[in-house]
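Record type: monomer structure entry
Structure origin: computed from sequence
Chain ID: A
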Amino acid sequence: MASKFVLGKLKNVVQSNFSSLLGFLFVALFISAVFLTRDDHTQRFAISNKDLNCNLFSGKWVYDNISYPLYKEQQCFLPDDMTCEQNGRKDLNYQFWRWQPHDCDLPRFNATAFMEKIRGKRLVFVGDSLNRNQYSSFLCLLDSVIPPPSKLLIKQQQQKIPEYNATIEFHWSPMLVESNCDNPMHQNARNRTVRIDSIEKHAKQWTDADILIFDSYSWWMVDQTITFLWGSFGSLDAIYKNVTMWLRPFEMAIQTWSNWIEFNINRDKTKLFFMSMSSDHYRGEEWGTEKGKNCYGEREPILNKEKNWGKIIDREMMEIVESAIDKLGRRGVKVQYLNITYLSAYRKEAHPTIYRTFQVPPSKEQLQDPAGYSDCIHWCLPGVPDLMASKFESVLGKRYIRSNFISLLSFLLVALVIAALFRTENHRQNQRVTNEEEHTTSSKNSCNLFSGKWVYDNESYPLYKEQECSFMPDDLTCEQNGRKDLKYQFWRWQPHHCDLPRVVFVGDSLNRNQWLSMMCLLEPAIPPSSKVLIKYYEHTIPIPEYNTTFEFYWSPMLVETNCDNPSHYNPQNRTVRISAIEKHARHWTDADIIVFDSYAWWMVNKTMTLLWGSFDSLDAIYQNASTGVRPYEMALQTWSNWLEYNLNREKTKLFFMSIGEEWGFEKGQNCYGETEQFMEERHWGTLINREMMEIAESAIYKLDKRGVKVQYINITHLSAYRKDAHPSIYKKFPVTPTKEKLANPPTYSDCLHWCLPGVPDTITFEKNQTPLNDSSQGCNLFSGKWVYDDKSHPQYNDTQCSFMSDEYACEKYGRKDLKYQKWRWQPRGCDLPRFNGTAFLEKIRGKKLVFVGDSLNRSQWVSLLCLIESSISSSSSSSKSIIRNGNFFYFQAMEYNATIGFYWSPFLVESNNDDPIVHRERDRTVRIHSIEKHARQWNDADILIFDSFVWWTDPTMTLLWGSFGSSDAIYKRVEMRHRRYEMALNTWSDWLEININRTKTKLFFMSLSPYHYWGENYSVEQHCYNETEPILKEEYWGADADRGMMHVAEATIRKLEIRGLKVQYMNITQLSDYRKDAHPSIYRKHDQPITEEQLKDPKSYSDCLHWCLPGVPDIWNQILYLHILNS
């Protein structure tokens, strides 16, 4: 588990700079093209004649989990909808194979130099989804040199990089010529029609580019017949012709393409490349599998066949392209043909198979036969297209190129680059540099990255996650979509003579548990000669071959105690020197990686003794403490102070493990005899001390603010499920159990530590908190389904509600389909009582109820007023009027002496959008620590319902310290949406904790109200315009439901609860997410007049954020009504 820390560190220490396969191939070729025309001669390169004569496309795949995968998703700016790992694929072995050409090594690539060479240039990929595959890979390869402000992928598949005045694009044109498949969002036409002589529609988009990369094969092979079109689509005199031979149409299309290239390309400017056919794997008999099988279930490349060519590869199509390129060359137009067919033919295991998003969901019949719908043509990313080094040194800025681990195509391109430069550079200087390099790499005392061995390493790989790669398309996301075989991921290259870090686990027996787990996980990588016998209390494992140590340091309470003897550490009367840590810290402070834990020893005894002074000192001061919580907080303060002032922040990486669960059930029962885990999702054990977790999190957060980064490893929730995984009676006990205990096994069972292999082998880096769901006598009101009910719904008529706002009055503004009003929420296992206005008003008699937040909370306020209107006396017209006092709008039900109000405060804290009428400031500025201006207006309420989400979703926002208009105010433009939201909620929660009357005021917080501009991911548009039915798929979550922000709100509410302040979290997100049909769309009063252009495109001005009334907010109020009634 913890070995992931170590091997991640190894990656940083040994920056071996392994470059990618296909992606780097293109990069290097492009660099070559650019360098051939450059004017300066400042760069010096050296490459041997042997390398120049090396056939880069002839070789083999070598398992290499050191250099591959070569970029991390979190470092690469891929959008969420392009991330395979995020989509669930588990077997990542396909990522760790490196192409090794015969008889040569591969030079490295420098992304910075490349970006400098395309400064002011435009690079475009043109073709089908395989070229888009390559485009996505390419952006990841260059990610490290693109400044964060520039990492913005726009819908047109265009990445602009202002810092380099460069653009990298993908143009969808699967057949190169015009076809009925040219819509990049809806391109799956089965009856394919091609304007075989028309390319200008596409070509005008890319002709002026500086670098062009084409492909086009697979779309010509799908159907048995293709329709030719002469004329225009939709023309009455167009001529259509069905043909059954797609090879000839392909040849004609390539001819149209080459003719355009010949007459329209600027030959002095534009560099041209054409990809060969990418191999697919639909016929298992090609590699020795039984007939009818394909890539589904494959986990290894084809390794037993040199010069493997798949039978499905159409060499005639490749020959057509090669012939066209040859003819262009003879006409003076150079196109570089990139022959990746041979090398990709080996990789039968690297396709998405079933682990991808399909445009049409598989049918039940297909699901029973996964091979029948497997994708064996595209490639998972990271994978074959992109194997690029995650970090690399400057090359083009240096005077030599050192060979290292790079992939096939990478080297091809680099070799071409070097060949081009080699002809123009000073050979004598190159030779001198080569000699210098050979001398350097041969030094016995240096770290030779190319001399070593392969080590099985299942902790540091994969090197990036799909969900963090912003450009990854769903159809390439294998792991996210469920692939399970991951063995291929775990081989690492270990160079000789390279110093690796010292890793120390510091803490109690649970951290020793973790340390032993790590050693077991790393054991296959440790040579037999280095496997020192691990005795129970010997805590250092030196591994001379790797020049590293893995240590455990016994310090169960981190500070000094009378329990610090690792062999005799169990005194019942625990004494703690709460301010003394130096005795221990001097042993671990200089480590490279430190993993701390300390919880269990603070919870064993009800009392402990605090010591000021030294043990055995005559003037020492002892003080009994009745609980371990406050002493624990003091000890962590001592620990954090030491780290702040003594740690080498540039060297040492710090981790802190959260609390592990000790399981208990009814009296007399525990983990003994348990063989199954808890299967109930979101289970939290009753013995988990969340207050201690909060103390640790707070200490870590404060350290972070002071510049010391500690990674909190929250394993609590995941381990809470595993009541089955403790040793129970199956361990060696320090003291042999008595006969009495042996007669009653639960009395001596160990339900604290973990069996190995087991839970410690798994790690999570996320703070997995359980969502705050409500229940009413066991019924989860927020889990259920929508039921059509035109008998009891709607509960009021929008045209008859005196309080209705034009923003929500959809029927008034022309909506004819009123079915959206007639859906009732049906929780599972219970019924939601119908709203009774009279009962509600009686319950709030003499009270003040206030909604605080944005327009979504205002819509809930309007809904509540409409629900209660029939219960209000209508003796006078003024009895149903709304009164405004600044930001506060309220209605007074005189006969009940009740006030129901709404207070406009979209950020909760103060902002430049606080005017309830005019609040359209686009440059949003927030006083992140200021809430009192608003809070004094609602603090005296009896019932408060808060919301605040949607206004925080801007990509950037300005934070203000000081006052608006102050000359010394400090403004800071920030991104970090979740962090700034967290800061505002902390301000809000601090106010509540100190100022709210806890015996009087009931508090509610509404979860995020979802909007409907996209579907389950951002690659699928699902606009609310013209939607008339809810989403009926159970457990649906849309892409716009920001769970990260929900987790921030949930965590804040938990902290308040720990401090004794109860806030009821109303988790209405998922139940609302089904209702894509219930938004106003175009049927509302708009703030600004609609333009003629907008009227032509209703989606452009549709409101898919707010809700029609009657509608979804009525259900929110029904649930609120039940809470208030039962309070």
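Annotation 1: The two ends are 46 Å apart (CA to CA).
Annotation 2: Residues 909 and 930 are 6 Å apart (CA to CA).
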